[in-house]
Design brief:
The structure holds 2 protein chains of 2 kinds.
Chain A lengths: L9 H9 L5 H19 L2 E4 L1 H17 L10 E5 L26 H8 L3 E6 L33 H8 L5 E6 L5 H6 L3 E4 L19 E6 L2 H11 L17 H4 L8 E5 L9 H16 L3 E5 L7 H16 L18 H12 L2 H14 L4 H22 L5 E5 L15 H6 L5 H6 L3 E9 L2 E9 L4 H14 L10
Parallel strand pairs in A: 2-3, 2-4, 7-8, 7-9
Antiparallel strand pairs in A: 1-3, 4-6, 5-6, 5-10, 9-11, 10-11
Helix pairs in contact in A: 2-3, 7-16, 10-12, 10-13
Chain B lengths: L6 H10 L6 H18 L34 H6 L4 E2 L2 E2 L8
Antiparallel strand pairs in B: 1-2
The chains are: A alpha/beta, B mainly alpha.
Chain lengths: 487, 98
């Protein structure tokens, strides 16, 4: 039978498989059929895992036929961002320096997906080493937004958002360092969850900014996001920063009544929305939350405006350190033009890192270098403390904060790629959650001229269940998630 | 606006970072990094007297595990990740000049 992947969610696909409406092989082949038809336009994938995926689908069909108990993500096709290690499958971080790199082990998030029965469709594009907000920094060319192919699907997890919005899979893993899941979610009518720092293990991510990196989820509905989070969250002995806290049942928490939920609107997040139509979408969404019984309160986070400046000191500093491991010795590519060991380092790195990776290495090396460390790095970490305390204080009075995702819908490819600083400023609403380590969720909230607009919910540390339940009630009161990109 | 950092400084940083840059890249990064540092300098507006710097956000401390050796399931695969290897060893250029 013909399966329309865009109409399916994880929840409905599980139902379809269990009730013999379609086989898992049908489901997985439908994904690859769409990829063959449309990925030349969207360019979401860097590599496909078709042979293994079909084999895994046969195993799922065998289990279903024999009446064996089905695992929680049995037969669900997912895409994995290419900064997440997958054993035996290419993992390039969208960089030339890892062009032929094949990891020897899986990231914990991948292990957990596989154990839950999910099927990996392939590895998806992103900005090189996740440095960017549009996928234009990928060494393999940008991805395109399925809602408008001339536009960016967001970034850095833009291959993840493009693949899901295009109907190439039913969920995707991304990573969020400073907005890299939430902004692509917002620009592609998807949920994008950045969990609390430490909620999901970072083991097996190719590190970018270790103090704010986290894996997370792109999914079509709040319910699907909750299903995935229940699998991915939890302590991992391989990640010393992973939190030992108990993992709640996010799925059953969705039904928690919204009545009386206190929503804070930080005024600084509403002052510079450059697109009035996006502002109108957000204000209508706030109205829906109020009709559902939420209590809306105006709050202030005056240090929000320093978030980008803090981020662009801390991030390059940690990047310059983390990318030190790519020296042509242990992983990936080695320059063929080097005569000495030092040249192996300098030429391998000079020839194979892209412009943004080099810019961050340079900036980071500078702010960490003797004489500048106090002025830049220590200062930024102190302002980070101020930003964190401020948001934690406000979250004592409200349950969640509601903000826009971005000042405008998806940008045109090429619109800002010539100006690195302008690109950095795209993430103005994203840095607070990243710096404070609190969860942030993009929620589909409507459209402006056919382009998706997302709202962001931020919550207390480990407050994912509250965010997902609030979003779930909003989703049921609106119909945004039933709309799909036409390719 | 004059560049905050000069081409000469860029070259020095590139050397510290073990990164070979072309002449064009050096000029470009001097300009772009200066612009970013100019933007970042607004941090000096924030009073951080008596503020502790953030070193972590989880609240976890002293994360320890038992000192038990775990057997690596596939050491050969780790070696194979290296661009050049021979006899299950990673191959590199001579470290000392001969």
């Amino acid at each position: 039978m013909k399966i329309d992947i865009q109409q399916l969610t994880i929840a409905s696909a599980k139902h379809g498989l269990q009730n013999y409406e379609f086989s898992c092989v049908d489901l997985v082949e439908a994904c690859f059929d769409r990829i063959r038809m449309h990925d030349k336009d969207a360019h979401a994938f860097l590599s496909l895992n078709e042979k293994q995926a079909i084999q895994d689908a046969k195993e799922t069909d065998r289990r279903i036929k024999k009446g064996e108990p089905l695992r929680s993500l049995e037969g669900i096709p997912v895409a994995i961002k290419d900064v997440i290690m997958t054993q035996g499958m290419p993992t390039t971080a969208a960089s030339k320096i890892l062009e032929h790199f094949i990891p020897a082990h899986d990231a914990t998030v991948v292990t957990r997906l596989k154990e839950a029965g999910a099927i990996i469709v392939g590895k998806v594009n992103c900005d090189e080493f996740a440095h960017g907000a549009s996928t234009e920094n990928s060494a393999y060319g940008p991805s395109h937004n399925p809602w408008d192919l001339s536009r960016s699907p967001g970034g850095s997890s833009g291959g993840s958002s493009a693949a899901l919005a295009a109907g190439f899979c039913l969920a995707a893993l991304g990573t969020d360092t400073g907005g890299s899941i939430r902004q692509p979610g917002g620009w592609c009518n998807l949920y994008g969850l950045r969990p609390t720092y430490g909620r999901i293990s970072r083991y097996g991510l190719i590190s970018m900014t270790s103090s704010t990196d986290t894996p997370g989820i792109l999914a079509k509905t709040a319910e699907d996001t909750a299903l995935l989070l229940s699998i991915l969250a939890g302590h991992d002995p391989h990640d010393a920063t992973s939190l030992p806290s108990e993992v709640p049942n996010y799925h059953s928490a969705l039904a928690t009544p919204l009545m009386g939920l206190k929503i804070g609107l930080p005024k600084e997040f509403f002052e510079d929305i450059s697109d009035p139509k996006s502002a109108e979408v957000i204000s209508q969404a706030i109205g829906v939350f109020e009709e559902l019984g939420a209590e809306v309160k105006h709050v202030s986070l005056p240090h929000t405006k320093y978030g980008i400046a803090v981020y662009y000191v801390i991030t390059p500093a940690e990047v310059s350190s983390n990318l030190g491991r790519f020296d042509g010795v242990r992983f990936g590519h080695r320059s063929t033009n080097a005569n000495t060991l030092t040249e192996v380092y300098t030429k391998t790195r000079g020839e194979n890192f892209g412009p943004e990776a080099k810019r961050r290495i340079m900036l980071g090396t500078y702010v960490l270098s003797s004489g500048y460390y106090d002025a830049y790095y220590k200062k930024a970490q102190k302002v980070r403390t101020v930003i964190t305390k401020e948001v934690m204080h406000v979250l004592n009075d409200v349950d969640v904060l509601l903000t826009p995702i971005a000042p405008h819908p998806a940008i045109k490819l090429g619109e800002k790629s010539h100006d690195p600083l302008a690109m950095y400023l795209e993430d103005v609403y994203m840095e607070t959650a990243a710096l404070a380590g609190i969860p942030g969720l993009s929620v589909p909230a409507g459209f402006v001229d056919g382009l998706p607009v997302g709202l962001q919910l931020m919550g207390k540390q480990l407050g994912e269940a509250t965010l997902l339940s609030a979003a779930h009630h909003y989703e049921k009161a609106t119909n945004w998630t039933t709309k799909h990109a036409k390719l | 606006m004059a560049d905050v950092i000069s081409s000469k400084e860029v070259q020095k940083i590139a050397q510290l970072a073990r990164l070979e840059l072309t002449g064009k890249e050096v000029a470009q990064y001097a300009e772009q990094i200066s612009a970013i540092l100019g933007y970042v300098s607004q941090l000096s507006e924030v009073d951080t007297e008596n503020v502790k710097l953030t070193s972590q956000v989880t609240g976890l401390s002293n994360v320890l595990r038992e000192d038990v050796v775990e057997v690596c399931s596939n050491p050969e695969a780790l070696i194979r990740m290296a661009p050049e290897h021979e006899n299950n060893l990673i191959k590199v250029k001579a470290v000392f000049d001969s």
